[in-house]
UniProtKB/TrEMBL annotation:
Protein's organism: Streptomyces lavendofoliae
Superkingdom classification of source: Bacteria
Entries under InterPro entries matching the protein: CO_DH_flav_C (IPR005107), CO_DH_flav_C_dom_sf (IPR036683), Diverse_Substr_Oxidored (IPR051312), FAD-bd_PCMH (IPR016166), FAD-bd_PCMH-like_sf (IPR036318), FAD-bd_PCMH_sub1 (IPR016167), FAD-bd_PCMH_sub2 (IPR016169), Mopterin_DH_FAD-bd (IPR002346)
Name of the molecule in the record: FAD-binding molybdopterin dehydrogenase
Domain FAD-binding PCMH-type intervals: 1-222
Amino acid sequence: MKPYGYVRARSVEEATAAHAAHPGARYLAGGTNLVDLMKHGVETPGTLVDVSRLPLDTVEEPPGGGLRVGATVRNSDLAAHPLVRERYPVLSQALLAGASGQLRNIATTGGNLLQRTRCPYFQDTGTPCNKRAPGTGCAAREGVHRDHAVLGHSPHCVATHPSDMAVALAALDATVELRGPDGERTVPVTEFHRLPGDHPERDTVVRPGELITAVVLPPGTAGLPSAYRKARDRASYAFALASVAAVLDVAGDGTVRHVALAFGGLAHRPWRARLAETALLGAAPTEDALAHAVEAELGLAQPLRDNAFKVPLARNLAHRVLSELAADRP
Ligand SMILES: Cc1cc2nc3c(=O)[nH]c(=O)nc-3n(C[C@H](O)[C@H](O)[C@H](O)COP(=O)(O)OP(=O)(O)OC[C@H]3O[C@@H](n4cnc5c(N)ncnc54)[C@H](O)[C@@H]3O)c2cc1C
Ligand code: SF4
């Protein structure tokens, strides 16, 4: 048992000040990931700054449209929110595809975005892992890596990002609001998580001490046809082998007016399929066009020894979701 301090913050200012005052502090939200990692000895915070009761638990409609989701809104509340279900169904579906009802009742929007990889070596302090202990090596590259990345990995890390919610947010062009020692800033979700490169220990672009205060869903993707589909080993309570979040808007003349496609379970971050999107924008979404677009994107894949199956799995998922959205228009 390693002792640690505990501070319950009542305001954003109190939270960031407490974090700054306690070197080695971590923010604690629902605790469903952080506390597990503390039990495994992977995270060893000197102090937990509890942000779970901050007044950031509302979903608001900003004057310009869209939705502003506070960082402590619970996953189950966000999934069930009438405006989310109506305007951003892909987000509601992604949330409901994640974890279990009990976990979603406690897990928060901010914590979900910052959950760490489920690579088993990362969670096992007895094995080499560059993400947990930089410079020790990557046990997964030649070890058990069936669940690992096929896109954007590096010699130093082949882990995937586990969040379903983040994949939907990437497809919706959502942004993350942060408050830290240097003030406030906003980061697009597509740039929030990093590829591993030479520094797999850094999952995201979040700077030391920064607190997520909100996630903003833009008006531009509100109400567009969208869907989330996830393939996994069990029907529930399992992380994605591959998943797809898609937004597809077809104009009256039958050509694609807006398209966004993001993959989960394939990379160290939600993977926006820009090649596929470029191929589809302005084209008629025929079965051939959809197939070629998805193929162009997944041509970038570099599977590991035991996870080549993810490429056709992701291809079929993406094709089916896009095809259904294209067929579903009025
Ligand atoms: C058995 C199991 C199955 C699961 N299955 C899935 C699944 O299928 N799909 C899926 O997407 N997820 C799944 N999860 C993960 C779950 O969604 C996450 O654990 C949860 O979303 C994390 O949210 P939290 O509020 O509990 O975060 P915490 O555990 O409290 O925190 C996680 C991280 O975020 C940081 N943090 C929290 N809030 C903030 C903030 N506002 N600002 C800055 N930093 C912050 C913490 O310091 C910590 O580093 C599963 C978890 C379990 C245990
Ligand atoms: S894939 Fe990444 S997280 Fe897993 S062992 Fe390798 S370095 Fe660690």
